[in-house]
Write a structure and sequence with these properties.
The protein is of the alpha+beta class. The protein folds into three domains: about 170 residues, Collagenase (Catalytic Domain), CATH 3.40.390.10; about 80 residues, no CATH class; about 250 residues, Immunoglobulin-like. About 10% of the residues lie in helices and about 20% in strands. The chain contains five helices and 25 strands. The strands form seven sheets. Strands 10, 12, 13, 15, 16, 24 and 25 form a seven-stranded mixed sheet that branches. Strands 1-3-2-4-6-5 form a six-stranded mixed sheet, sandwiched between helices. A three-stranded antiparallel sheet has the order 9-11-14, with no helix packed on it. A hairpin with a 3-residue loop joins strand 5 and strand 6. Helix 1 packs antiparallel against helix 3.
Length: about 525
């Protein structure tokens, strides 16, 4: 942290001597450019309470991710914890007294509401920006057992067991732009009658075809739908956004956006949260090989993609060669020797999250596409004992290159070996054996010095298997984190030549070289602000 930044944070926190606040990684599932990054900041935790802060934060996360769709999409989120020390525990007007001296000035009775828990938002945002600059959503965890919380660009929750319910609700606002479905009168901006309500769970439309969640309404359900009949499905119920009439919601009762007494979101709100999570990510995390491919006709070619680590994910992989569908075995496509004729080709895969939680995806947030330009040259001989293809490393599993057999035919690739605590290398050819950043490690590990260590207990993780043959004397010009999906148009990263046992034009011809360059046509989205 720069001296200027330290002074700014110290001023915001109201302390005279700036110092570095420890940052703990609670969860890392991928690079921040491809994840929704949450930062938790502790308030009302004294120096002797810092281990309690870690435990409380982990409890809060387990509660947050305990319901759908947060549970299924936990793998799209990274979480870090900032250990800010307070002179006193608790919050103003809380369990420990009316006035407490805390790092972020937490206080109950905000705006005259006893359970509304607020903080010094400027101080929170200043600390988050300095210590976890990649953050997308800040959460303040207050060390007070009194029930309370609030939402917005900074969500706040106390340590009361029910405060996590408020947090789930408030993140529905800040992440998915969901509306409150309350009917109690409260001054609130009205919906535009022409443009409709901006929130995905509120509308002024009453025609079935005009309702934005029409895909969730059964054809037999009346629209509008009468309240109080016990109907538990999705319909068009009047009363939403602090109005009893003129604005409609998807479900009568039983949605967290209508009442904190509910333990779940309705289908429409859950769908909006899933789409919101995908705004920060892409179904394709990595590709292998990492770019354009030049090969010989007798080479066996393999292509693969790595997807985010989602629970119970339902992935769809559609592979094409020159626009024609081909049978691919999930996330890996193997093309036997001779599949591609000499000339230029394009191999493409479309990956989709086929979750039943989403029926409306108008902008294709749940889809990702990767393409590889392939140039194939003639080849007539496969030389025994030499490689006739490349190795491949996908989803932390490395597979060696196929070898030419004594019959002159290209054989099958060897069995895959786990990379252990390490990720695949940037080229998608082999496991990493050291790390320089945490993106070099598998999920659940972070890089310390040059080793990937467990986030759970800090012990070094197991090493991984190898990959295919790469010239030992060649140098790799690979930028850090180059293997993660990057924006189209980024600068190519040259890779070393790999061995190839296929002779071009005859047995006396020199072995051809396989050259990869980062240039794949990749599509990615990243939401900020």
């Amino acid at each position: 942290m720069s001296a200027l930044a330290a002074v700014a944070v110290a001023w915001a926190l109201g302390v005279s001597t700036p110092g570095s606040l420890p940052v703990e990684t609670l969860q890392r599932t991928g690079p921040s450019e491809q994840r929704l990054d949450l930062v938790i900041l502790g308030d009302g935790y004294r120096d002797v309470d810092q281990s309690k802060l870690t435990a409380d934060a982990e409890t809060l996360l387990e509660g947050l991710f305990g319901i759908s769709p947060y549970r299924q999409y936990r793998g799209l989120m990274n979480v870090k914890l900032i250990h800010a020390e307070s002179r006193d525990n608790g919050a103003d007007n809380g369990s420990y007294g009316a006035v407490r001296d805390t790092a972020f000035g937490a206080y109950f009775n905000c705006s005259g509401v006893s359970y509304l828990l607020c903080v010094d938002y400027s101080a929170v945002l200043a600390a988050a920006a300095v210590y976890v600059p990649e953050y997308d959503q800040a959460i303040v965890l207050v060390n007070d057992p009194k029930y309370g919380g609030s939402g917005g660009s900074v969500a706040v929750a106390s340590t009361h067991p029910n405060a996590v319910t408020t947090l789930r609700h408030e993140l529905g606002h800040s992440l998915a732009r969901l509306a409150d479905e309350y009917e109690q009168t409260f001054p609130y901006p009205s919906c535009d009658a022409t443009l409709d309500c901006l929130e995905p769970n509120a509308t002024v439309r009453t025609g079935r075809s005009e309702v934005k969640w029409n895909a969730w309404i059964d054809p037999s359900t009346a629209v509008p739908t009468r309240e109080g009949t016990g109907f538990a499905g999705i319909g068009l119920f009047e009363g939403c956004r602090y109005l009893t009439a003129g604005v409609y919601r998807p479900k009568d009762t039983g949605c967290l956006m209508k009442t904190n007494a509910s333990v779940s979101f309705c289908s429409v709100c859950a769908e909006a949260l899933v789409r919101a999570a995908w705004r920060y990510s892409n179904p394709i995390d990595r590709v292998a090989p990492s770019g354009a491919v030049t090969a010989l006709a007798c080479d066996a070619l393999s292509f693969g993609v790595t997807t985010p680590p989602l629970e119970d994910a339902s992935w769809s992989f559609v592979w094409t060669v020159d626009g024609a569908p081909v049978a691919g075995s999930g996330r890996i496509l193997d093309l036997p020797p001779g599949t591609l004729a000499p000339g230029g080709h394009v191999v493409q895969v479309r990956v989709q999250d086929s979750t039943a939680l989403v029926r409306n995806d108008p902008t294709g947030l749940l889809q990702g596409v990767a393409s590889w330009p392939v140039t194939v040259s003639p080849c007539s001989v496969c030389r025994a004992g030499l490689a006739c293809g490349t190795s491949l490393c996908v989803d932390g599993m490395a597979r060696p290159a196929p070898m030419c057999g004594s019959s002159g035919q290209c054989g099958a690739a060897g069995p895959s070996v786990s990379c252990g605590a390490y990720a695949c290398d940037a080229e998608g050819l082999a496991c990493r054996t050291t790390c320089s950043i945490s993106a070099d490690c598998a999920a659940g590990y972070e890089c310390r010095s040059t080793q990937c260590v467990s986030l759970a207990d800090g012990t070094p993780g197991p090493g991984g298997g190898g990959g295919g043959p790469i010239d030992a004397g060649s140098s790799r010009a690979v930028t850090p984190d180059a293997g993660w999906l990057a924006d189209a148009g980024h600068s190519p990263v040259p890779l070393p030549p790999a061995s190839c046992g296929c002779g071009a034009g005859g047995e006396g011809a020199a072995a051809a070289l396989l050259w990869l360059a980062v240039a794949g046509a990749l599509r990615r989205r990243r939401a900020r602000g």
